[in-house]
Amino acid sequence: PIRVAVTGAAGQIGYSLLFRIASGEMLGPDQPVIIQGLELPMALGALEGVAMELTDCGFPLLHGIETSSNPDEAFGDADVVMLVGSKPRGPGMLRSDLIRENGPIFIGQGKSIDANAAADAKIIVVGNPCNTNCLIAAAQAKRIPKANWTAMTRLDHNRAIGQLAQKAGVGAGDIDGVTIWGNHSPTMVPDIDRATIGGKPVADTLDAAWLADEFDGTVRTRGKAIINARGKSSAASAANAALDHIHDWFLGTGDSPYVSMAVPSKGDYGIPEGLIFSFPCRITAPWQYEIVTGLDLSDSVRDKMQGTIDELVGERESVSDLL
Q1: Which one is catalytic: 63, 184, 245, 247?
Q2: Active-site residue 247, yes or no?
Q3: Can the peptide bond before residue 88 be classed as cis, meaning omega within 30 degrees of 0?
Q4: How many of the other CB atoms lie within 10 Å of CB of 142?
Q5: How would you classify residue 277: left for phi > 0, otherwise alpha for psi between -120 and 50, otherwise beta?
Q6: CB 161 within 8 A of CB 175
Q7: What pLDDT shows up at residue 227?
Q8: From CA 107, how far away is CA 296, in angstroms rounded?
Q9: What is the mean pLDDT of residues 210-231?
Q10: Closest residue by Cα to residue 178 from 168, 166, 164
Q11: I need a labelling partner for 141 at 20 to 30 A (CA). Which of 28, 116, 202, 276 fits?
């Protein structure tokens, strides 16, 4: 069995995620799993209830459920670590405040993962601000390769696909070639210059004004719109994106040429080395990704990318004492 550790496992995203992991949706229909859930002590009872429900589902692939409030236990021998839990942004908090509040959490979790998880563990940070939370956690690693630390921009990637499909009146499976560059924040850059709808360029199918204005703005601010409508942050869609991220990293992207993953920059496209930055990534083998290089970027995309670069550099500077 593959051991999957999930933090914030009794929260809304965790609850939407665990059953799909246990069913085989994430790692495939033939791959047994052991789920290792981590929660705060005050939420451990709720997590025990979730574990009961998982047992009651009778999933053939679920070979064990472990619950703990101790990170060293929850991350023990984990092959996959999904860092879902983080402190949410409160009223009046700036993004910089949230980063400083979450910093100590991800320092501790990074150290615990490095000390206790499998030596080749694969990590996805979902809890926001996920790019910089990932940067902080990865900075604690001495044993687990830095390339194994990733953050989730697949939700933005999926949101872009959903908007294009809805506007074109087609299924999401007809959309290909979408890229999200940069930070999981309103500065992200949805890039559809190489995207297609049913094999035809998006630009030949949909109105240019809509693409430049409503589409771009909707993707970048979708999270806030959902909070305004629902009164709560995205949960099921975030869980689905985390599942997609790990699924494709392990099993490949099928017919898609690449997907969006926030991974450590090596300097490609002029992105400062070491930033956790969303790139188009190709899966070359199970658990092996590579940044797709050599894409010709439009002046518009490059101009927008500078904004998300500046934001991530600023975030890195604000937590430099934690790295």
Answers
A1: 184
A2: no
A3: no
A4: 7
A5: beta
A6: yes
A7: 86
A8: 37
A9: 92
A10: 164
A11: 28
